Amino acid sequence: MSTARFTEEFKLEAVKQITEHQRSVADVAKRLGVSTHSLYAWVKRYGKPSEQRQQESNEATELRRLRSEVKRLTEERDILKKAAAYFARESG
User: Fold this and answer.
1) CB 25 within 8 A of CB 43
2) Residue 46 and residue 53: Cα distance in Å, rounded?
3) CA 91, CA 25: separation in Å to the nearest integer?
4) Is the dihedral of CA 15, 17, 19, 23 positive or negative?
């Protein structure tokens, strides 16, 4: 498994060769020394307009925040249920 890290600019240029210059993924992968799997992932991510990528990034961030909040609220609810059951037994 390669530990090579590529800049976003490098990835965008690689995607541009595929999308705008109509070169095959295999050809670009071979010339740049990158796996075809990586290139397909880059095309999926960077092949969209930057505004759309930014919107999807913002939506993903919001989704992570909301999931975290749901988890916290669920835990709080469960604690309150247990407390209510405990006090119901104590007073009864």
Assistant:
1) yes
2) 7
3) 71
4) negative
Lowest mean pLDDT among 3-7, 10-14, 38-42: 3-7
Cα distance between residue 92 and residue 88, in whole Å: 6
Nearest to 39 by CA among 2, 12, 4, 7: 12
**Is 63 within 8 Å of 38 (Cβ atoms)?**
no
Going by pLDDT thresholds of 50, 70 and 90, the confidence category of residue 4 is low
**What is the DSSP track for 57-85?**
HHHHHHHHHHHHHHHHHHHHHHHHHHHHH
